[in-house]
Design a protein that fits this description.
single chain, alpha/beta, Rossmann fold, 2 domains, 35% helix
């Protein structure tokens, strides 16, 4: 069946340019505030590319076209690949030909690369969070952590946390079955007892050295806290993967109590660095992409 084309981005004819042309996009729901396009395009220009990055926002599509149909249209239009964000990181897997080791381990895809007649799924969130955690929270106590959110982002963050030396990870999700599936998967990869479904949130927070929000709670379109502010204490370190707003209510609460905090900007930056390299085959400059990320004014939606 043909896809309704009102979601399809306007494509610009670049045939008059001799520079290598890279056309990519971001597929998601309610993504107008994303900083990813500007980071990619600025880095592409710095490297002499004609780099077009399109938002494919299905928020206003009713009914939303099927993911498989979208991939087919995008691939036929000559796109090099797609970033994929909430809520499609797991749904997209059924429409791909191969998965990278990270994507298989996490069970979610945030980067799709087209080429040689195949669709290859990758997960750059894993490396993005791991690198941000390594740089932003060195030396924190890592015996026990509480992860809130067992969706596509939670899968990547959980694996990165255990890979970074968290001894035991408790997982909390509004869907207990999702938390259970993720815990089983992590234990099979990292060893028995490394992950478990969290007990009720008060007990989990009391045990945890650190609290990580990998749920959408705290986004501009879903404001609030993923757990009660009273459960955050000065002994905790607190990380959030949400970066719009950059200072979520969770981070503001934790910072006011004297906690070490890690904003979502680091994961956003480093996942984009790795995705750029997958799309282009060229090494990205993290400092240059960081400068682009930081060029956004507070509250900017572009």
């Amino acid at each position: 069946m043909s896809v309704p084309m009102h979601w399809m981005p306007m494509l610009i004819d670049r045939s008059d340019s001799d520079a290598p042309h890279v056309r990519v996009g971001l597929l998601g729901h309610g993504i107008s505030a994303s900083r990813t396009p500007r980071m990619h395009m600025a880095e592409g220009r710095a490297q002499g590319l004609v780099y077009d990055y399109h938002l494919i926002d299905l928020a206003d599509c009713t009914p939303a076209p099927a993911i498989g149909d979208i991939l087919g249209e995008i691939e036929a239009a000559g796109f090099r690949g797609l970033n994929v964000t909430y809520p499609y990181k797991q749904a997209v897997i059924a429409h791909l030909d191969t998965l990278s080791d990270n994507a298989q381990a996490v069970g979610a895809v945030n980067t799709v690369v087209f080429g040689d007649g195949a669709r290859r799924g990758h997960n750059t969130d894993y490396w993005g969070f791991a690198e941000s955690f390594r740089r932003g929270l060195p030396g924190v106590k890592r015996d026990v952590a509480l992860l809130i959110g067992a969706g596509g982002a939670g899968g990547a963050v959980s694996a990165a946390l255990l890979g970074a030396g968290i001894g035991r990870l408790m997982i909390l999700d509004t869907n207990p079955d999702s938390a259970e599936r993720l815990a089983r998967s992590l234990c099979s990869r990292f060893g028995p007892g490394r992950a478990e479904v969290a007990p009720e949130v008060e007990a989990a927070a009391a045990q945890a050295d650190g609290i990580v929000n990998a749920s959408p709670v705290g986004m501009a379109k879903l404001p609030g806290l993923p757990l009660s502010a009273s459960l955050v204490t000065p002994r905790h370190w607190v990380a959030d993967i949400v970066y719009f707003p950059l200072e979520t209510e969770l981070l503001a609460t934790a910072r006011a109590k004297g906690c070490a905090v890690l904003p979502g900007s680091g994961m956003a930056l480093y996942q984009a660095v790795r995705a750029f390299e997958l799309f282009t085959g060229l090494p990205a400059d993290p400092q240059r992409m960081q400068a682009t990320f930081d060029s956004f004014t507070t509250g900017s939606a572009t």
